[in-house]
Structures are given as structure tokens and as C-alpha cells.
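Researcher: Please translate sequence to C-alpha cells.
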Amino acid sequence: MPRIALVTCRPGPDVSVDPDLPVLLEALRGAGARVSAEVWDDPGVDWGVFDLVLIRSTWDYSRRAAEFAAWAETCGKVTRLRNPAGVVRWNTDKRYLGELAAAGVPVVPTRYVAPGDPFDPPGDHEYVVKPTAGAGARFAARYRPGERDTAAAQVARMHAEGFTAMIQPYVASVDTEGERALQFFGGRLLHAARKGAVLALGTPYDKKKVAHPGLETWTPTPAELSVAGRALAAVPAAVTGGSGLLYARADLVTGRDGEPVVMELELVEPHLFLSLHTASVPRVVEAVLTAARR
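Model: Translation complete:
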């Protein structure tokens, strides 16, 4: 049976616990695999001994995105890394949303403000400011048009730390319809969930947020499946290296026209919400074992 590493990160006060990790470890061992949880930046790990290295909960990567991408490149040269290093490098920078939009995928309108660029926020509607390298709503905040100075201070802080900022209109439907997360594994829809709004007015950008409030199961609509499929199909073949995507999560919201649009495409370390979808565990195990044997 294959030897598999499930990749996670070191525990810490600002890092969420991964409830899926022990579930997958037990299920894969029950299927006969030799599997262990490994920390991505542990210098003592020999990644070359594994048949498959599966990125799972490297939830501290956004603070060290360049270092994490370099680790993925190195790891991918000695073993089978999923998703592959090209996907990691592409998806850890949210400027990929611009590429999806250019490919005709409906996405939340996004502007980017790199260090040195002027900050010119909307003057007639609420908006969100966040970094292009971020996870769990870290350094994200929601503003009214009259809060320019506070928002500018956030952008200045991100620029000082080397981040590019992104500005998006606040999608008001999130407050009433929530955000839908469509999970794919092994090239097929695994399950879907809906979660509530993460960003509240007045919450400072540097305060820790609840990443998935009010999580519940969801049956995706045909329109949502179509948009998610278009987004996945638009991932450049050059970044997948011909190996495709083992897993993906498309986070969708309802746009002003009532149709679904992409908020984010999570291809690096998406939470699978297996505690909400226990029946999905065997399908994940089957897909992981298949990937390890190829």
C-alpha cells in the first residue's frame, strides 16, 4: 500500500485546528495506507519517501507565501505533490481572479493596489479590503464610503509588510443568502455547504474572524454548478502541469444580477468540512489512494 503524507502546519494561537485531519488519518489507515501527518516547514521530513504528499491544512502559509511556494516547488521535485506546485504558486496570489475574469468567468469585481500605487476606494458603496495573499479573512475588513482614512491605514500596513491589497465591492447578498462552498475531489463534486457573512462593519482588519460561521449543508443549483465548472476549467493548464486538480473548492456568492459569481477558488488547502459531510469520507479516501498509486 502507498505511503502518504497529509501536510499541515504547526499549532499556534492564530492557527485553527483541522478537524478533518484525524478523520482522514484514521480512514486512510483503515484502508491499508501508511499515512502520517507532517508539518510543511519541518526540516527533518524526507518528502521523497512518500508516494503522495497531500496538502491539507497548511493554514499559516499566507504569512509566508513565498516560502511556502518554494517548499512546494522543492517537494514536487522529489515526490507526487497534490495539488502540484504550479497550482500552489498560482492560487496563493489572489490576482488569479483577474485571470478568471479575463477568461469570461463571472467573479466579484476586483481592483489591485500594489505597494506604491494610490489608494482610491469607492465613494458610493461599501467595500472590502484584503491582501492578495491571505486565508481565514486575515487582514480583511469591510468599510463604508466615509471610512477612507481607516481603510487607507490598513492598506498602508499591508504595503509595509509587502502585500498587495485588493478592493472588492461588498456583496450584500452574503448577509441574506450566505456564501456557497462547492467541494470537488477526484474530478467530481464531493459536496457543498453554505456559510454566513464573515465580515461585519466595524470589525478591525487585524482582529481574528470566524472563517465559516453558520455552516450548513447545501444543494448547489444548476447555475452554481455551471459557474464552478467554468472556473475550474479556466485554471491554466500550465499551472497544473498536466496532472490536473485532485481537489478544489469554489466559493460563490450571488451577484447584483441574481446570478452566482466566484468569490474565491481554493486550490491549495481548502477546509473540506468532513464533520458536516461524513458520508464523503470514503470518496475522499478512494480518490487519495488512486492518486497515490498513479
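Researcher: Any highlights?
Model: The longest strand covers residues 188-195.
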